[in-house]
UniProtKB/TrEMBL annotation:
UniProt cofactor(s): Mg(2+)
A Gene Ontology BP annotation from the UniProt entry: tetrahydrofolate interconversion
Residue sites binding substrate per the record: 55, 60
EC assignment: 6.3.3.2
Entry keyword annotation includes Nucleotidyltransferase: no
Molecular functions (GO terms): 5-formyltetrahydrofolate cyclo-ligase activity; ATP binding; metal ion binding
Keyword Manganese annotated: no
Family, similarity comment: Belongs to the 5-formyltetrahydrofolate cyclo-ligase family.
Catalytic activity: (6S)-5-formyl-5,6,7,8-tetrahydrofolate + ATP = (6R)-5,10-methenyltetrahydrofolate + ADP + phosphate
Keyword annotations of the record: ATP-binding, Ligase, Magnesium, Metal-binding, Nucleotide-binding
InterPro entries in the cross-refs: FTHF_cligase, FTHF_cligase-like_sf, NagB/RpiA_transferase-like
Positions that bind ATP: 9-13
Upper lineage: Bacteria, Bacillati, Actinomycetota, Actinomycetes, Micrococcales
Protein name as it appears in the record: 5-formyltetrahydrofolate cyclo-ligase
Length: 199
């Protein structure tokens, strides 16, 4: 990756992280309700019975209500657990599960570990992001877990990144290893981008 691209990504991530941290508690609650509504509709539209999702941190668009509701409806939900080698293990979300701190301080479930290939069986992937652009390019938080996962899948299902409305932008800095997503889910809408093979 060129220094210019790396610097541009770092600066953008810092700006987005700061903007997220300034959101009010009320704004976060409203965003979580909107995300749940959009994700519920997305799952129904795809007829998904097995999905992957993530447990949102305190400043991310909230996914926990959605995960709980999906599990209650009998949908199999895989949640990621970070590994030191840069890959992701997965565990099946249960109606009641403990949450621990992951390698980088993010919330992760405690449960039986399934290997990285467990995600190959899902009908739909819902992943975190800092931003998404109109071509489906996703800006992650710099550790590459989801880029590696998506890039290694033989048959990648539709992949949607969860962001706030203002984080859907015209263009993002990107490099060769960056993976595009099928679309973005925000509190107010679900956007399908044109350039991802899973769309």
């Amino acid at each position: 990756m060129s220094d210019a691209i790396a610097d541009a990504k770092r600066a953008l991530r810092a700006e987005l992280r700061e903007r997220r941290s300034m959101r009010s508690e009320q704004g976060r609650r409203e965003a979580a309700a909107g995300i749940r509504e959009q994700l519920d509709a997305l799952v129904e539209r795809h007829g998904a019975r097995s999905i992957s999702c993530f447990l949102s941190t305190s400043i991310e668009p909230g996914t926990r209500e959605f995960v709980g509701g999906a599990v209650a409806r009998g949908i199999r939900v895989l949640l990621p657990i970070t590994r030191k080698d840069g890959l992701l293990d997965w565990t099946v979300a249960e109606p009641e599960f403990d949450i621990a701190e992951g390698l980088f301080g993010q919330p992760e479930p405690v449960g039986e570990l399934l290997g990285p290939i467990a995600v190959n069986d899902v009908d739909l992937m819902i992943i975190p992001a800092a931003a998404v652009d109109r071509t489906g390019m996703r800006l992650g938080w710099g550790r590459g877990f989801f880029d590696k996962t998506i890039g290694s899948m033989e048959r990648c299902p539709p992949v949607y990144a969860v962001i706030f409305d203002s984080e859907f932008v015209d263009e993002l800095p990107s490099d060769l290893h960056d993976q595009r997503v099928t679309g973005a889910v925000t509190p107010s809408r679900t956007i399908v981008t044109a350039e991802h093979p899973g769309s």
